[in-house]
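Structure request: Lycopene cyclase domain-containing protein, Halorussus limi.
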Amino acid sequence: MSTLTYVEFLLAFLGVPVAALAVAVARKTDDHRRVLAGVAALVCIAVTYTAPWDSYLVGRGVWTYGEGVVAARFARVPLGEWLFFVLQTVTTGLWYHLLAPRVDPGVPGRDAPGRSDARTVGAVAWLALAAVGAVLTATATRTYYLGMILVWAGPVVAFLWAVGGPVVWRYRRLVAAAVAVPSAYLWAADRFAIGTGLWTISPDYSTGLHVAGLPVEEAIFFALTNLLVVQGLLLFDWVTARAAERGTAHAVAGLVPPSVASLAGSLSARVPGVAEVRRRWQ
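Returned structure:
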């Protein structure tokens, strides 16, 4: 039996870092609204996308909780785990903002010719990884958890590369640093939680491989979730920087292929009233 409850663990291991990072970021930046908007948006996305997946795996028995750890549940997910979704996203998001410079809106986006390679290669690679995950999920019980992680995260990372691959590549060192530190910290926290019996990863659904005492599935999970947060915030900052420079239409145009944007512009120009709306929009 663990000596800590889920909520006590979160307050100790994530509550304190969040408070410290919030103070540091508030002192560093004068654009608090942008930081708050980006992190809040990512929190909403993270909770909405993760909760159904998490609920399914909890119901399947991929991991279980120690006696006395969970006080209440919603949709099979412990309330502490809902809070974990929020606090991890906030922690990683604030760490990213502590490191990040002002994102250059001139970094090539979809509207820049000759820069589609990063998008294509990144998107295809992550979709291939998701396909590998599907195979792992379907072919063996012991690789089920690992496969489910890849199936869940791969398509989203592929989408982020499809819309902003050149930006991610341009800021790859920032992405690496913003992902590495929170991941290492969460690996240590997760190792402590497993070691003290807060939760247990089922040996039936995991490979049994460990990295420094941590199940490899957990290490990959935290690395990928932090990658999703960091890339999402980077592209949020890029879009808002483009919007501030030349308007919302310019920001949105960077997220679609030039051929699609050109076709849409041609068609909209022929629709009565659309040209006037576009003029006012810009």
